[in-house]
Design goal:
The protein has about 190 residues and is an alpha+beta fold. The protein contains six helices and 14 strands. The protein has helices at about 10-20, 40-60, 90-95, 115-120, 120-125, 180; strands at about 5, 25-30, 30-35, 65, 70-75, 80, 85-90, 100, 105-110, 135-140, 145-150, 155-165, 165-170, 175-180. The strands form three sheets. Strands 1-3-2-6-5-8 form a six-stranded mixed β-sheet, with helices on one face. Strands 4-7-9-10-11-12 form a six-stranded mixed β-sheet. Strands 13-14 form a two-stranded antiparallel ribbon. A hairpin with a 2-residue loop joins strand 2 and strand 3 (about 30-35). The protein is globular and about 50 Å long. About 35% of the residues are buried. The mean pLDDT is about 95.
Length: about 190
């Protein structure tokens, strides 16, 4: 998540105003701003694969996938994040003039060695406060491994891990594909 962190409190309004003119992206967490580091080629390919698959699958469904430049606002946690892929099926997001989503149904993060601990820990804790979020998916960029956390009927988050040779199921958007499809052109699968 971080390349560098700000040292003073910033209001959400000042953060959003700054993002409109900043040449680099920043994430916002409880008054602190974090500059985002650039992604490796493998990260970009996997993210692009996920987006393309979801875009084709969701066409005409009322659900819209968004790529890395769309922020997600998690109000209960006072955060703005830039997930690799987010899907919203909520009319309020579709019709909003804001430069961020408030009601994501699915969030996908491609893990890098520097972000994995944060994405699994504090960021996931923040995302869990979103009432609209149904699935949180972590894709390993170094080996064929997908972790899908799905909110069950009792509101508990259950892990569904996928590995080579398996079909990944994203129940929140009624999507499935061979795990290898997510990694196409990104890493050697043997």
């Amino acid at each position: 998540m971080v390349a560098s962190k700000s040292d003073t409190y910033v209001s959400p309004e000042d953060y959003l105003a700054g993002e409109k003119v900043s040449p680099i992206k920043h994430e916002y967490r409880q008054g602190e701003i974090y500059a985002m580091a650039g992604a490796k080629k493998v990260h970009v390919i996997i993210s692009g694969n996920v987006f393309a698959l979801l875009r084709n699958h969701l066409r005409g469904s009322g659900c819209i996938p968004y790529m890395a430049d769309m922020k997600v606002r998690i109000e209960a946690a006072d955060c703005y994040y830039y997930p690799d892929v987010a899907v919203s099926c909520d009319e309020r997001d579709k019709n909003a003039d804001e430069d961020f989503l408030r009601y994501p149904r699915l969030i996908v993060e491609v893990l890098s060695p520097t972000t994995a601990a944060f994405d699994r820990g504090e960021k996931f804790a923040d995302y869990r406060t979103s009432e609209s979020l149904q699935e949180y998916v972590l894709i390993n960029q170094e080996r064929v491994s997908v972790e899908c956390f799905r909110r069950n009927a009792e509101g508990l988050w259950v892990l569904y891990p996928y590995s080579q040779g398996q079909e990944v199921q994203l129940k929140s958007v009624n999507f499935s594909c061979a795990i290898e499809t997510l990694y196409e052109d990104a890493i050697e699968i043997g």
